[in-house]
Design brief:
Layout: H1 15-26, E1 31-37, E2 42-47, H2 49-54, H3 74-90, E3 94-101, E4 107-116, E5 124-130, H4 132-155, E6 157-163, E7 168-171, H5 173-178, H6 189-195, H7 201-212, E8 219-226, E9 236-246, E10 252-261, H8 263-300, H9 305-328, E11 334-335, H10 336-343, E12 352-355, E13 362-363, H11 365-384, E14 393-401, E15 404-412, H12 425-435, E16 440-444, E17 451-457
Parallel strand pairs: 12-14
Antiparallel strand pairs: 1-2, 1-5, 3-4, 4-5, 6-7, 6-10, 8-9, 9-10, 11-13, 14-15, 15-17, 16-17
Amino acid sequence: MGDEGRKGDWRSAGAGGEALLQAMLDATSMLAGVVEPLDDDYRFVMANRGACEFYGSANGTLNGRTGRDLGVTAEQISGRLEVLRRVLRTGAPETIEYSFRFPSGRQGWFLGTFTPLAEAAGQVVFIIIDITQQHVAQVEAERQGARLTLALNATELGLWEYDVAADRVDWDARTRRQFGLPPEGDINYATYAAAVHVEDFPATRVAYEAALAGENDGHYVVEHRTTAGGDGGSAVWVRGASRVSFDSQGRPVHVIGTSQDISAQVAARERQDLLLAELNHRVKNNLAAVQAIASQTMRGAPDDPVAFRSAFDSRIQSLARGHDLLTRNVWEAADLRDVIEAALAPFAAEGFEIDGPDAPAPLGPEMAVNLVMVLNELATNAAKYGALSGAGRVSIVWGVHGERLALHWRERGGPPVTPPQRTGFGTRLTLSALQAYGGTVELVFPPEGAECRMTALLARR
């Protein structure tokens, strides 16, 4: 730019004006100077020490050099010209954040303010701050925030904070839902306390106050119900993990924590406890049943170890098949057809005629196991002394009447039957096993074959 172009600018004031402006620019540690746009480039009119060092030039040697002289790319020059011309056209300062790629390939981020120079046609003062570190920190913070959000969503954790002095709680949307609070509205400690189940709040408060006192370095974990379920809904269980922060005098100032809906876990624990209690009950019952089987079997064959072992093994296996059947059904119920199949498994299927409705006839666990043993005992006696000892057959017919099952065991075609002179194990088992759970038994011995009529309560569907 020639002398004519400089009339009216700061240089018309002579060396004193130039020295004053240079001193002002050098007073800042930021990149500062004066530039002017050309047709397809821009030129530094004046630059402070920081700008010279930024471009790797000695102090004072940047004046008069263009962007192209300094290795700035055409794209970067075009963007800079756009800003300079807009500022000169509007006459208003402009602050922008932009990236700059150095010739070495390093990427930097900068915050620049561009202001038209008063009484200097076509010249702009620039002040630029290197914000690369701040930008990297911001990007990292955003990345960490995204990771935190992903982790919270993956684990379904709620996040909250509490300002102790201000008594102000900040809950995210998930925590509000867990405690049954609306999406909007102020929350304080009293709001939180009212949202904890009244029976669980005392223990929760003790843990919180212990953390405020500095126990466990301010960490505490609590599990409690909330009021989110309402009077008619299922309880919402929450696990809260928190940490208290303290000031230099050891006073609690801030609490941050997470909350997680553990209702499903609590329900699973309760079910496991119930199952363990049920298992303990069944083990005791089974031991009693084995003891009774051994005692009664020994009574029937006191002087014949071989007969005792054979009968005892058969009855224990029958008990085991009943348990296998219930295990497959998670000890909830078993259908009558499966019970009959388990009971008669050791015997030839050709000897039985089985008839009943197609509809399921579910039996409770105890009734199912006992009926397996009863039917197995009847079949064993039929094989030894009754219809199955020859060419006879056994018919098993049942029907369902309301909540009760009626089953008829009938033997035909075997040797003539005479009523037993004493009550054997099979008879005692049949009577006691069914009657103990609301069933009835009628056992008769006509000459043409033994018959047994039984009823049992069905399991609730």
